[in-house]
Specification:
The longest helix has 24 residues. Helices cover about 40% and strands about 20% of the residues. The protein is built from 17 helices and 21 strands. Helix 3 packs antiparallel against helix 4 and helix 6 packs parallel to helix 13. The chain is globular and about 80 Å long. The protein has about 475 residues and is α/β, with parallel strands linked by helices. It has two domains: about 280 residues, nicotinate phosphoribosyltransferase, CATH 3.20.140; about 170 residues, TIM Barrel, CATH 3.20.20.70. Bound molecules: adenosine-5'-triphosphate, 1-O-pyrophosphono-5-O-phosphono-alpha-D-ribofuranose (PRP) and nicotinic acid. The site of adenosine-5'-triphosphate has 12 residues, from helix 12 and helix 13. The site of 1-O-pyrophosphono-5-O-phosphono-alpha-D-ribofuranose has 16 residues, from helix 9, strand 11 and helix 14. Pathway: Cofactor biosynthesis; NAD(+) biosynthesis; nicotinate D-ribonucleotide from nicotinate: step 1/1. It is an enzyme of class 6 (ligase). This is Nicotinate phosphoribosyltransferase.
Length: about 475
């Protein structure tokens, strides 16, 4: 968790390239890189950008101390002492623009723009992608779950099955951005101010002579927060009746049973039966929590079956992004310093989708003033004049440039915000609750067709004519 130790959280090839730049005397040349992804995860219609807070912490603490330098000395005999001395002076002195956490983002649009000495811009690729790819993936998975359970409480239960501690903790934060209500991880609660929640485990019941005794002892210990796990022996014959008994005892003390938790079996059937039993006992306010390898598909299916579940506890499938364990975000050089100017560069590929978009760009969300809804994102060259307001904008379909739509009255909202300028923080990042509310406002900008979890309508990402022309020119220049 100590961010200052993350300087060497990078691939060795970055340090090798930094070294080679230092040898050829180009380490101070400026370079611009963009981070973006090419394909949406989970077949979703959007992704939820996350990871910026950690990126900012990482950049602020980026430094090579004695320990790092001593280690590098052991890793490569070619590293010259002069290079290591240069590293001792290292700090991030560049510019970073990024979209806000919680923003809905789409393939091939710049999410982070780094302009810095190539020495710096190169080093940070690995860690930035690591943070952005994981946290964006988990926020997106959480958002899919939120789409199918918009009003119920969503509890994040994943830590024990997460890919180690950082994934659990930063993953919990990402799920909160996308609308989860709490995490079971107390360190995430302490670190980020996330609400925490907890019921009890089967071991609590197994560790007593009877289920009833286990429930009673638990209720005595935590009378204000009693949610009882009712499936250790037999949910309907023993768990729910025992929970009802304890609820009645709590009532006598002026307390209420908060809930019961179902963690196995047919959750639709059991929840309906449990609801009827609770209601019959006058416990209509007692909530039913369900867990057991849930994901957005099972939750949707359970709801379609009429399950009476008020609270969903979701662990493994969410925190490991089980159905797609990685977001393939990349970090590509888009411009480099040549003869004092920043010159656009391209990466060619046999696969047209993998050809990079050259030059430093701006990204705008085009919101139709008549409907208040997002029509498309528009990517243009930095400083390019396009009619921001007042005049119609022509939004080309990138795959079929003969197809376009015209929006007459619109607002162009810039997506990339300055975070560091010349190494200095120029804006405070919003607090987590602001990010969460902003995410909700973002969702409201999009038609439901783009938000549905199965076969969504693709939101349009469009490029300016100038950017497409530059790309064509560079492809032409590099074709033989
Ligand atoms: N009515 C239902 N419709 C669809 N899926 C369900 C339904 N009820 C439960 N499930 C899901 O089916 C899966 C059942 O998995 P599994 O067979 O391991 O659970 P189980 O029968 O409860 O056994 P265990 O006691 O080992 O947890 C879980 O992912 C659960 O969320
Ligand atoms: O299923 P997930 O979505 O990953 O949610 C977390 C799971 O972790 C716990 O089970 P576990 O068997 O680890 O512990 P327990 O003995 O308390 O049930 C809990 O009961 C959930 O089933
Ligand atoms: O509080 C719970 O019920 C819980 C927490 C973590 C994992 N499973 C369940």
């Amino acid at each position: 968790m100590c961010e200052s130790r993350l300087t060497l959280h990078t691939d060795k090839y970055q340090i090798n390239m930094m070294y080679a730049h230092w040898k050829q005397g180009t380490q101070n040349q400026r370079a611009a890189f963009e981070a973006y992804f090419r394909k949406l995860p989970f077949g979703n219609g959007y992704a939820v950008f996350a990871g910026l807070e950690r990126i900012v912490e990482y950049l602020r603490n980026l430094a090579f101390g004695e320990e790092e330098i001593a280690f590098l000395r052991t890793q490569e005999e070619n590293y010259d002492e002069g290079f290591l001395a240069e590293l001792e002076k290292f700090k991030f002195s560049g510019n970073l623009h990024a979209v806000r956490e919680g923003t809905l983002v789409f393939p091939n649009e710049p999410l982070i723009l780094v302009e810095a000495r190539v020495f710096e811009a190169q080093l940070i690729e690995t860690a930035m992608l690591n943070f952005m790819n994981y946290q964006t993936l988990i926020a997106t998975k959480a958002s899919r779950i939120k789409q199918v359970a918009p009003v119920e409480r969503l509890l994040e239960f994943g830590t024990r099955r997460a890919q180690e501690a950082d994934a659990a903790i930063w993953g919990a934060r990402a799920t909160y951005i996308a609308g989860f209500h709490s995490t079971s991880n107390l360190l995430a609660g302490m670190r980020f101010g996330l609400p925490t929640s907890g019921t009890h485990a089967h071991s609590w019941v197994q560790g007593h002579d009877s289920e009833e005794d286990a429930f009673r002892q638990y209720a005595e210990a935590l009378p204000d927060h009693v949610t009882l796990l009712v499936d250790t022996y037999d949910t309907l014959k023993s768990g729910v009746p025992n929970a009802i008994r304890i609820a009645k005892e709590l009532e006598k003390k002026g307390k209420r049973l908060k809930g019961i938790r179902l963690d196995s079996g047919d959750l639709a059937y059991l929840s309906k039966r449990a609801r009827a039993m609770l209601d019959e006992a006058g416990l209509t306010d007692v909530k039913i929590v369900a867990s057991n390898d849930l994901d957005e598909n099972i939750i949707a299916e359970l709801k379609a079956q009429g399950a009476r579940i008020d609270v969903w506890g979701v662990g493994t499938q969410l925190i490991t992004a089980f159905d797609q364990p990685s977001l393939g975000g990349v970090y590509k050089l888009v411009a480099r310093e040549k003869n004092g100017d920043l010159e656009p560069v391209i990466k060619i590929s046999g696969n047209p989708e993998k050809i990079s978009n050259p030059g430093i760009k701006e990204a705008y969300r085009i919101v139709n003033k008549e409907t208040g809804m997002a029509e498309a994102d528009f990517i243009c060259m930095r400083g390019e004049k396009f009619s921001r307001e007042g005049e119609p904008i022509k939004l080309f379909d990138p795959l079929h440039p003969h197809r376009f739509k015209i929006v007459n009255e619109y607002e162009a909202i810039p997506l990339l915000q300055p975070v560091f300028i010349n190494g200095v923080r120029v804006s405070e990042l919003p607090g987590l609750d602001d990010i969460r509310s902003y995410h909700e406002i973002q969702l409201a900008l999009f038609w439901p067709e783009h938000l549905r979890k199965l076969n969504p309508e693709m939101y349009r990402i469009t490029f300016s004519r100038a950017m497409l022309d530059l790309k064509a020119e560079l492809i032409d220049r590099h074709s033989h």
